[in-house]
Predict the 3D structure of the following.
Amino acid sequence: MRRIALVTLVVDDYDEAVRFYTEALGFRLVEDAPRPDGSRWVVVEPGSEAAGPGLLLTRAKGDVQRARVGDQTGGRVGFFLHTDDFARDHARMTAAGVTFLEQPRHEPYGTVAVFQDLYGNRWDLLQPVG
């Protein structure tokens, strides 16, 4: 069986990124280990391993990577967070200060709203139909 295990997300600061993803989005910190080069191996996941890939939070190195922080997909929604209870998660995330760019909407495929992470990357919070 093959699956995508991790997706890299370039961030400005490890600690602020961990706080945002664990506190505001409710992810769990899976690993935070120092690397010999002074960086860290930081992995967060939205839930159980079966829920999909985790995020490898990596601190930007150099001007090219720093320029991509918050715009890794050119302004498009690049990340999709599925939920089994949209209203619960939307309310919790809003109370935690997450910026939603639109009101929740009902589409044929589910209930969805676009939000930004702390750097401006766009995400869908989505409760799929069925």
